[in-house]
Every structure is written in C-alpha cells, then in structure tokens.
Amino acid sequence: MRYLTVVCLVFFVWTGLRSEGIVFHQGTWPEALAKAKESGQLIFVDAYTTWCGPCKLMSAKTFPDKSVGEFYNTHFLNVKLDMEKGEGLDFSDKYGVSAFPTLLYIDGEGQLVMKAVGYMDPAKFLDAGRSALKKGDKSALYAKEYDAGKRDFNTVYNYVKSLNQAGKPSLKIANDYLNSQKDLTTPDNLRFILEAATETDSRIFSLAVKSKEALVKLFGEEKVKSRWIQAGHRTVLKAVEFQSFDLLTGAQQEIRAAMPEEGDAFEFNSNIHYYTSVKDGESLYKAMKKLPASVEKDPGLINHLSLEVEKSFNTDEKLTGLCEQLLSKLINSSSAVEHQFTLARIYALNGKAEKASKLLSQLIPLAKTKGMDTVPMEQFRMKLGS
Fold it and tell me: What CATH number does the domain containing 22 carry?
C-alpha cells in the first residue's frame, strides 16, 4: 500500500511510549549488536564527545524532534556513545571516528552501512536515515529468489521481514504464503504470522490474535505485545492518511481485544496522533475529557498530550486549560524535570507568566544538579521577562 512508502511508521516502543524524540538503547554495544541481529534492524550510532558544540545542538534540537523520533524509533536501534570513554574508545578506533558528531548506520553483523559527519537539522537527519535504509535494504535479493519461484519458508520469511524493515508492502506475499500452508500452528508458521501481522485491519493480525497463547509461549509476551502495538500504530497512520475515523477506532478495538491491559494507553496515544494530525482540536478535547483513570494518573501520558497541544493547538484555550488542569494534579517538586518544564510553558500559554517564572526559578537549579542542559529553560524564563 502506498502509505507505507510515503510516511514514517509510528511505533511507540515500550521503552519510549511516552517519549517525543529518539529513544536510545540503554545497554552495552554488544547487546545492541545482538538485538539488531535478532530484529534485522540497522543500528544508528551518535558518536559524540561531551565538549562538542554541534553534538550538543543535535541532542537539543534534532534528537527530540517528534518526526525524528517516530522515524528512528521505528526503523533503527539507536545508540549514543561517548568517543572519549568506555566502549567509545574501541568503537572510535574500529570505525575510524575522528570528527564529531559522526553519525553511523551499522547492521547487526557490525558492518558499516553508511557514515555521515557533522550537525544535521531534523530534515537532513531524516534524509540521512532514509538513505541508510535504502543502502541496508536487502529485499531486492529475496525478491529475485522469490520471483524465480523459490517458495521455501526461509526465502519467503526473509523476504517479508526485509520488506517490513524497509517499510515496503508485504501483506500480499505473506497472505499467499499462509494460504499455501495446511498447518498454521507449526513453530515456523507461527514465527511467520508474528512477523507478517503488520496491520490490525488484516486477516493475518486476526490469525496472530487467535494464536496468542502459542506465540507468547514461543517468543515471550513482551515481543508479541510490541509487534502488535506496532501493527496498531501502522493502522492509525493509515487512518490519518485517509482521514478514516473507522480505521482509527478499528485499531483501538483490535488492540483492546488483543491486549486489554494496554487498551487505555493505546487509545490515548492514537487519539492524540490522529486528532493532532487532522487538526481537529474539538474532537481531541472531547476525547481527553473522557480519560480513563489509568491514563489520567500517568504523568508521562499527560505530558505527551500537553506537548502535542503546545505544538499544534497552543491558541486553543480549552485544550491548554485542560492540559494545565491535568498536569497540575500530577506534577510536584519531585516530578521529572521535563514534565515540570512542560507545565511551566503551559502556564505561560494560559497567561500565567508569573506562575511559570516561579516554577522555573525552582526548576533550573534542580536541573543543574542533575547535569541537565538548562539553556532552554533559562531562555524561556528570559522571554517571560524575568
């Protein structure tokens, strides 16, 4: 389908469900390689130093960008490495890093796919990611074998997997294969179903849900859930492209039925994405007025809502007022600095500059003790006239 090739796929991975920008891997470099080898993803590496100005600028301006986060969290395993300590020292020697930042795209075998040097704004960084995906796209190799008549499991599975990784349509190939199988309960066919269930509005997703118990037993609950959330968000993105409310609610219903414990969070995130994308503030407000308790008590999700409102509906007094109301109930002096800063900006949008300034005067020293970059907060406080 066309939408897979012209838009970024939204996948709020579990560790980054409530994050706006890039979510970086927290483990070791060998763990990142092993994870990438298993998933087939490319690794994006930000090779930086603590004193590098352009590195800091990318961390402040490019990596937090929403569109960058959506694209890179979907297509790459993202890693930050300081080139002057720890694993970065050996990494720098192996991959010839001599300027900063160096941006590398590496496969699960440790082979360099693409390298770029220097600061990139979000648009250029997205272009770099797309170029890396094209260079790492192996689907043409499997397509050649498939077109020559090879239909064994490994060929078709790897073909579908490579298409998915490249953001290309795979459902027809997957359906043709499954239609040829007499027993869909074999370990190989269950693995195929999990890989091929890329959209909730598909027969294959229904097969996957029916096989939930067997899939969880084979692959673990976390992996199954993450794949299904990815499928749900792909369908939501299609709903945005075609402005189809039915596709949106269909995805929400499928995820709630498949994973009841994730239904509230998925509905919340998908509503935000859909209504902000189609610029429907009134519907967003109505949806947010009916928040379930599990969402209303979650500062990460409410912060996500507030960021979207700040970006897309900052003149809508009803929405900014609702965000202030929800955030104020949750935020206190021990809350995450990012959440408190969001609340300060929402105060300002609602004409409460003095309240925003007071919060910032407490927040900036706290952020400094945590080693955080306080320049954006200080600049915002200056704009308030303090």
Answer: 3.40.30.10
